[in-house]
């Protein structure tokens, strides 16, 4: 995780999430970070890319939308 990611904030944003939900959210946010690396043609040898809170929030919005659709 990026240094700016607050676990307290993440907990506040994900009420009712269980471990599997958080794992899926983290996986999707990490894939977003990987995609960003490839899109910007950053040299992978330059270091690791950490997952930002923005990427987590983006994936969280996607997961909430999917959850709403599943309820219907």
From TrEMBL:
InterPro entries xref list: AAA_lid_3 (IPR041569)
Stretches assigned to the AAA ATPase AAA+ lid domain: 4-43
Organism superkingdom: Eukaryota
Full protein name: AAA_lid_3 domain-containing protein
């Amino acid at each position: 995780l990026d240094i700016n990611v607050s676990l307290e904030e993440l907990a506040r944003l994900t009420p009712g999430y269980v471990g599997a939900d958080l794992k899926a959210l983290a996986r999707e946010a990490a894939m977003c970070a990987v995609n960003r690396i490839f899109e910007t043609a950053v040299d992978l040898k330059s270091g690791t890319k950490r997952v930002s809170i923005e990427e987590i929030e983006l994936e969280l919005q996607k997961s909430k939308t999917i959850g709403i659709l599943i309820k219907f």
